[in-house]
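for the recovery benchmark. tokens below, seq after
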């Protein structure tokens, strides 16, 4: 019985494969379209894509073009080819502004760009583009059921950009390039005033100034220590019991001790 079932399954598989190959080689568009749609609905996207690629040019300007173009775009999306999915969904939204699938296409297109955003340590050009696409969707569809998710995706992308900017500033600090680090932290705090890394940025800015001061020529020490003291006061103003409070207070005590000799 098991052997019989295996043979039947094998026959069906081979039959379906031969049918697919036959349709793939046909000149007629109708059978290709029918099979492509069937394969798409069954989740067999790779096979469906080969057929869609053949028939899309022949459907342009025809009544079925809207349906075919949506399936074509969504096939790329389901295959996780987000470059082409984003491009094709954008084309679809522009070509069919009155389509009932337009909003869905706009959102999937924007999400495709989100999927292309690299990890924070790499160049963030694609992250900027993803934020722009998602924000355009949010502005165009403020009542969408996808609004909450779209806002979360934008927040995630912005957090990624914030982290990159923060890590760049912190690298200057760790490399003991304190003047550049202080400037980088200043720019960071201006660009991202509500950042989750704000406390860390304020603390590392203080520590950079303190280490710059104590490593300076004597003629610069007093002035730089006083600047470090003002950075401590600014940190303490916002974070009385923060993650780095104990370290900041230790720095503050040493600053006071060092400044005593200048009185």
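predicted aa per position
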């Amino acid at each position: 019985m098991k052997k019989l079932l295996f043979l039947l399954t094998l026959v069906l598989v081979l039959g379906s494969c031969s049918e697919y190959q036959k349709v793939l080689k046909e000149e007629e568009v109708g059978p290709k379209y029918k099979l492509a749609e069937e394969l798409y609905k069954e989740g067999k996207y790779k096979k469906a894509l080969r057929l869609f690629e053949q028939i899309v040019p022949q459907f342009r300007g025809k009544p079925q073009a809207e349906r075919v173009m949506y399936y074509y775009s969504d096939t790329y999306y389901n295959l996780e080819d987000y470059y082409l999915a984003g491009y094709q969904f954008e084309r679809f939204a522009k070509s069919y502004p009155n389509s009932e699938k337009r909003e869905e296409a706009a959102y999937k297109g924007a999400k495709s760009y989100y999927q292309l955003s690299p990890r924070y340590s790499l160049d963030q050009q694609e992250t900027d583009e993803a934020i722009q696409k998602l924000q355009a969707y949010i502005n165009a569809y403020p009542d969408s059921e996808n609004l909450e998710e779209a806002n979360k995706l934008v927040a995630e992308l912005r957090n990624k950009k914030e982290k990159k900017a923060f890590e760049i500033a912190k690298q200057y600090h760790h490399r003991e390039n304190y003047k550049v680090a202080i400037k980088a932290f200043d720019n960071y705090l201006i660009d991202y005033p509500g950042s989750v890394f704000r406390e860390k940025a304020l603390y590392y800015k203080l520590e950079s100034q303190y280490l710059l001061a104590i490593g300076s020529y004597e003629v610069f020490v007093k002035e730089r220590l006083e600047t470090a003291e003002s950075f401590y006061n600014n940190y303490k103003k916002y974070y009385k019991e923060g993650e780095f409070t104990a370290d900041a207070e230790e720095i503050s005590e040493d600053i006071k001790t060092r400044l005593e000799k200048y009185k």
